[in-house]
């Protein structure tokens, strides 16, 4: 199913409370960040050029996010084992989580956010993650959304917006 703009949460809406699997076998949800702002960036696939650049950019700025008291989390549909390899291969310092719910027959966080959409490449259509970033207030409401993200300069723009919440 392709999401429309009317079924996508936006600024002022509560961020959905889905649980995501972490590479260490644990789980994480927006409730784990209660009381502080959080940035959740959703990307299509581990170890692809754009996703690697984005993850490296956020990793480089992680100390600045930490200093500002802002939680940071990267999310894709890749399984936790893939995230472990991605973190190791690219020397990432950011935490990653897996939104693998559709594999278990249930809707996941990406579906709830309207960012699991129909895509097209080389004449082939398929379902995939729309590169999107959410800045979430300390109270769990969405402060800002960046949709169809262009990677270059994105992490810096998100950091500035997140600092402005402060």
UniProtKB/TrEMBL annotation:
<keyword id="KW-0676">Redox-active center</keyword>
<keyword id="KW-0560">Oxidoreductase</keyword>
<dbReference type="InterPro" id="IPR024706">
    <property type="entry name" value="Peroxiredoxin_AhpC-typ"/>
</dbReference>
<dbReference type="Pfam" id="PF00578">
    <property type="entry name" value="AhpC-TSA"/>
</dbReference>
<dbReference type="InterPro" id="IPR000866">
    <property type="entry name" value="AhpC/TSA"/>
</dbReference>
<keyword id="KW-0575">Peroxidase</keyword>
<feature type="region of interest" description="Disordered">
    <location>
        <begin position="1"/>
        <end position="26"/>
    </location>
</feature>
<protein>
    <recommendedName>
        <fullName>thioredoxin-dependent peroxiredoxin</fullName>
        <ecNumber>1.11.1.24</ecNumber>
    </recommendedName>
</protein>
<dbReference type="InterPro" id="IPR013766">
    <property type="entry name" value="Thioredoxin_domain"/>
</dbReference>
<comment type="function">
    <text>Thiol-specific peroxidase that catalyzes the reduction of hydrogen peroxide and organic hydroperoxides to water and alcohols, respectively. Plays a role in cell protection against oxidative stress by detoxifying peroxides and as sensor of hydrogen peroxide-mediated signaling events.</text>
</comment>
<dbReference type="GO" id="GO:0008379">
    <property type="term" value="F:thioredoxin peroxidase activity"/>
</dbReference>
<feature type="domain" description="Thioredoxin">
    <location>
        <begin position="9"/>
        <end position="166"/>
    </location>
</feature>
<keyword id="KW-1015">Disulfide bond</keyword>
<comment type="similarity">
    <text>Belongs to the peroxiredoxin family. BCP/PrxQ subfamily.</text>
</comment>
<keyword id="KW-0049">Antioxidant</keyword>
<dbReference type="GO" id="GO:0005737">
    <property type="term" value="C:cytoplasm"/>
</dbReference>
<comment type="subunit">
    <text>Monomer.</text>
</comment>
<dbReference type="GO" id="GO:0034599">
    <property type="term" value="P:cellular response to oxidative stress"/>
</dbReference>
<dbReference type="GO" id="GO:0045454">
    <property type="term" value="P:cell redox homeostasis"/>
</dbReference>
<dbReference type="InterPro" id="IPR050924">
    <property type="entry name" value="Peroxiredoxin_BCP/PrxQ"/>
</dbReference>
<dbReference type="InterPro" id="IPR036249">
    <property type="entry name" value="Thioredoxin-like_sf"/>
</dbReference>
<feature type="active site" description="Cysteine sulfenic acid (-SOH) intermediate; for peroxidase activity">
    <location>
        <position position="51"/>
    </location>
</feature>
């Amino acid at each position: 199913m392709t999401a429309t703009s009317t079924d996508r949460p936006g600024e002022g809406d509560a961020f959905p409370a889905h649980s995501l699997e972490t590479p260490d076998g644990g789980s994480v949800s927006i409730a784990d960040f209660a009381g502080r702002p959080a940035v959740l960036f959703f990307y299509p696939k581990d170890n692809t050029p754009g996703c690697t650049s984005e993850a490296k950019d956020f990793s480089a700025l992680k100390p600045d996010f930490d200093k500002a008291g802002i939680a940071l989390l990267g999310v894709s549909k890749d399984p936790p084992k893939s995230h472990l390899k991605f973190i190791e291969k690219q020397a990432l310092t950011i935490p990653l989580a897996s939104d693998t719910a559709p594999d278990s027959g249930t809707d996941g966080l990406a579906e709830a956010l309207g960012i699991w959409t129909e895509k097209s490449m080389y004449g082939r259509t398929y379902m995939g993650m729309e590169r999107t970033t959410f800045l979430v207030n300390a109270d769990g409401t969405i402060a800002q959304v960046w949709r169809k993200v262009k990677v270059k300069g994105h992490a810096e723009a998100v950091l500035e917006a997140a600092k402005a919440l402060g």
